[in-house]
Write a sequence for this structure.
């Protein structure tokens, strides 16, 4: 399964909302979709699992949705620390794949 | 507290074999459901999953790199080792080890919940 994220870059101001898309080349089930945040020079951090469940300690301004082949990460009310790269990830039997990432930058 | 840390050479020459070690703490690779994976990221590019080893010694490999990869574990040392043969400049990347989430909740077994800081490996003559 190939994951395509859009847009590549999102330029927004603090306080605005961000909507990030992840499209899978074929349907694999929402249980297999996750989202990660990666800040410059750091390892990725798990945000969302099973498409819509926040990981431990993740603020409720982060939400995930979607089914089939189309999934969305929404960040409401962007905080300064939210400007980063976001990756979606899919698990299919015996392998994991990642999207190319969406960079959320300060406008 | 769960931590993982990668170690290994920072520079390797083309055609050489890369050996990376992930040393972890806060969990055991003898516990049912536990797995440790290697994931890499070339500079400015996407994450790429490489391999995973389970508590029961089952191993999974990226289909595109399977012929070059070997993953193993030493439970007494809390370490996971990845070897990659025939290194090429395109293999220049930050290599991460990460713990696969324990499948205690629906979908959680399909993610990586703890990551090491990463180790940059440059392939250059």
């Amino acid at each position: 399964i190939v994951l395509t994220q859009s847009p590549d870059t999102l330029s927004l101001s603090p306080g605005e909302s961000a909507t990030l898309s992840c499209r899978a080349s074929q349907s694999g089930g929402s249980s297999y979709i996750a989202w990660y945040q990666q800040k410059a020079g750091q390892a990725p951090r798990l945000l969302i699992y099973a498409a819509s469940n926040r990981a431990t300690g993740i603020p409720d301004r982060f939400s995930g949705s979607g089914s089939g082949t189309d999934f969305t990460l929404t960040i409401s009310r962007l905080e300064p620390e939210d400007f980063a790269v976001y990756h979606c990830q899919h698990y299919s039997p015996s392998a994991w794949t990642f999207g190319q990432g969406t960079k959320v930058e300060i406008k | 507290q769960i931590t993982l840390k990668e170690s290994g050479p920072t520079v390797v020459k083309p055609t050489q074999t890369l050996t990376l070690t992930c040393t972890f703490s806060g969990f055991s690779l003898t516990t049912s459901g536990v797995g440790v994976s290697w994931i890499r990221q070339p500079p400015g590019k996407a994450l790429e999953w490489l391999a995973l080893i389970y508590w029961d010694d089952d191993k999974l490999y990226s289909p595109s790199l399977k012929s070059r990869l070997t993953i193993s574990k030493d439970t007494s040392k809390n370490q996971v080792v990845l070897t990659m043969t025939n290194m090429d400049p395109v293999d220049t990347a930050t290599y991460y080890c990460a713990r696969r989430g324990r499948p205690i909740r629906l979908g959680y077994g399909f993610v990586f919940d703890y990551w090491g800081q990463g180790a940059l490996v440059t392939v250059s003559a």
Notes: Residues 39 and 84 of chain A are 5 Å apart (CA to CA). The first strand of chain A starts at residue 3 and ends at 6. Chain A has a mean pLDDT of 96. Chain A has no helices and eleven strands.
